Amino acid sequence: MDAEDQVKKYFDWIDYMVFAIMLIVSALVGVYFAFFAKIKQNTTSEYLMGGKTMGIFPISMSLIASYISGISLLGIPAEMYTYGTQFWMTLVSEVFVAIIMGYAILPVFYQLKITSTYEYLNLRFSNTVRMLGTIMFLAKMLLYIPIVIYVPALAFSQVTGINLHLVTPVVCIVCIFYTTLGGLKAVVWTDTIQTAVMFGALVITVVVGTVRVGGVKEVWKRNSEGGRIEFFEMDLDPTIRHSFWTVTIGNFFYWLASCSINQAMVQRCLAMPTLASARITIGILVVGLWVLVSMCCYMGLVIYAYYQKCDPVTRGWIDKSDQLLPYFIMDTLGDIPGLPGMFVSGVFSAALSSMSTGLNSMTGVIFEDLIKPRLKRPLTEAQASFLMKMIVATIGVICVGLVFVVEKLGTLIQAAGSIGAITAGPLLGVFCLGMFFPGATPEGALVGGLLSGAFITWISVGSQTDIAHGIIRFPQKSVSVEGCSADWVADYLSITLSSDSPKKVPEAAFFLYRISYMYYTPLGTIGAIAIGLVVSYLTGYNKGKKLDKDVFSPVVQRLLRAQPPLDAGVDSILTTHMLTELTGPL
Length: 586
Prior knowledge:
Blueprint: H1 13-36, H2 44-49, H3 56-67, H4 70-83, H5 91-112, H6 117-124, H7 127-160, H8 164-213, H9 216-225, H10 244-260, H11 263-270, H12 275-306, H13 312-315, H14 324-333, H15 339-371, H16 381-406, H17 412-436, H18 442-468, H19 486-498, H20 511-514, H21 520-538, H22 554-562, H23 576-583
Helix pairs in contact: 1-8, 1-15, 3-8, 3-11, 3-12, 3-15, 4-12, 4-15, 5-10, 5-12, 6-7, 7-8, 7-14, 7-15, 7-16, 7-17, 7-18, 8-12, 8-15, 8-16, 9-12, 10-17, 10-21, 11-15, 14-15, 15-16, 17-18, 17-21, 18-21
């Protein structure tokens, strides 16, 4: 571990070959579905929904691949290394999200037979609310995809020495190519292949890394000594970055928004022929996430165990904690032919799957919600297919340009969570108003979504700005350099101890900026619902209006049926009288 022995290791020809094979296979899948498949991708149904004939296995793998992006592969190990294991408890809430998604929300989309989730907002509220949802979704994806692109470029740069700004266009060109040509089927099947690569890379890295450290018991022992093992921080303080409450409550709302109303996820579920098969895919998704996220978390513990006595960031071998995993791969496993190439292929696979999912779903939303309703004459299927391919290419180019902003953000996990929450919470609130509150009006949904979105944007931007300026700092777990080169340690201590410059005391950040980013989505959701209900009350609560019962969640429909007759004196918006007013007799 001495500095003199620390020689920078890079890819060799076998690693480049493994990496190239993954990219070529991904591109060939797009070519196959565009030109050689029996059913060509030349209709909107085939291009966006796979003809609703997709199987459970590929859709499940696609959902897993889309959720486990490169952000997870690099960010979660860095999170464990820097802040400890509390983030691991996010898995607790995912089971509850899957149940709610499968039985309370997804049935609504199946009943209405829609392509874009935002069509629902038009059916339930108005075209204006639909536009609000569409714009929020597009804004979220345009902010999220650049982070997804940046992650593999960062890893590739770390293991090859090639500037990440040169790598970025290569990633995007391959992804845009197969997404443009092959539509949803190409995206889903490349996701399936890429999930296998990602899983294989993680398994090999975890096993070999554990052996190099000295076994699972030794890994756990060193992390316990370093204070990394922490699952039940029960403090209710909302400004604590990660406590049991922030990660379980916050992730419940965030994942509910990301899966149950997000076009990128719902589009794949709707590609299944039946609701029952869609529910099975959701169950497989949960199991897959538990396995992959746990592997990523454990990988962080392995890295800390290996560098327990000589922190690579403090030592100066890497610049950011997000580079820990690729650095660890090259430092400890670089002598195994092809393994670094497989690992980077896994990171790229995760990123490509997330990006292709985003491009495909954004294309569907733009076409179905922004272009199609405004056409005076309907396009032919061939014209629509060509237009959607042009949209994919255009969005891809825009996302490449936004990558340069990502470097200025904080850690990957926090940056992604903060940006995603800007729209996730308000959108979830608007959909909840529609599905679970029969009295919610279009005016209520619109005002609730806008004000809630503005509030979360203010907090998120303010928080990220204060983090960038060092005003907000989060307590990190301690690291050691006692095992580094003795000469370097002596120089390091002489510099740090002899510094006479007074340390600047950071100014106190505004309280709302210090709230854990995990709470942004719950705040946005609750804010949108609360404001929406108040405005709905002021605008008539839908009295006298008739609405299709299918726009409500099955849970609400059952509650409405179970209510006693009006003469029983029940004063509730969920009464038989309200049901008759809104939907007619069931």
